[in-house]
Amino acid sequence: MKAARFRTPTWLLAAALAATTLMPLGAAQAQANYPDKPIRMVVPFPPGGAVDILGRLVAQHLGEQMKQAIVVENRSGANGSVGNEAAAKAAPDGYTILLGANGLATNAWLYPKRTFSELKSLAPVAYVGSAPLIMVVPENSPAKSLKDIIDVARGDPSRISYASAGPGSSAHLGSELLKSVAKVGMLHVPYKGGAPALVDLTAGRVNFMLLDPLQAMPQLKSGRLRAIVVGSKERLPLLPDVPSAAEAGYPDFEATVWWGFMAPKGTPQEIVDRLNSEINKALTNPDAQKILEGMGVRTKPESPQAFGDFLQAESDKWSGVIKSAGITAD
């Protein structure tokens, strides 16, 4: 007896074919209309700081270009980890972006107990730029140069102390990098934030601190602090008379704060590329450039791939410093 043969109804085949055809068309249509609703920009630091100011600046110009609202959402905590993770857990549809900082590359090493990884859970979108850290000393400090600091530390490490806003902060990591390249010891004095650290620094209770230009310039203009070196290979235009670390004899002392945009892993490449193009355009806007230059920020348009390579290089660089110094923020 022959087995019964069942034929699939023609209408069912047609429906299945239509479904497979329409699904990619629907996704393509959504990307073609992007953005058709407000974009959330997560800033993983409190309002008023450098990251927040940068985020709101880019949001303004990005919104004008893309004709859509860019809503800044501050989610601070744990060196940016709280906001970074919140952004990573969002839908990968292009409607959540993150403006991250150095913690994107260092948090994995500073918080080894975490299960979350920025570099594994977020996709690079656009590099914003960087600003060098500035070594500042109290106005009445006898130190006039980086050499003066190093010479004293080489003779007696206990005589040189540096302040930071806490373990794992840019000031902490940058100072540990300096110790490593200069092969000297120094005493780390961590504070619960930058404000109390500055109080003790201006009072002369610690010898120096590394500050970004936004933090440093008001103190330098007031005369409470003096700048003796810039942690980069080139001088900072805001401080043309202050030598770079390379000029001071320590070219490997390159300590900067930097920023870049990320998106949840899995965000369509077409949307990532669109965001990259729009962010780069916003950063080259003459009005934006004027503000950025006043903050000491050097911008550099990069592709998502180039920014990803930069992130990996930064992770490799700072993992060595963190492990060597035994730094943990857990």
UniProtKB/TrEMBL annotation:
The lineage of its organism: Bacteria, Pseudomonadati, Pseudomonadota, Betaproteobacteria, Burkholderiales. The keyword Signal applies. It comes from Bordetella flabilis. This is LacI family transcriptional regulator. Keywords: Signal. Belongs to the UPF0065 (bug) family. CDD domains: PBP2_Bug27. Residues 1-32 form the signal peptide. Gene3D superfamilies: Bordetella uptake gene, domain 1, Periplasmic binding protein-like II.
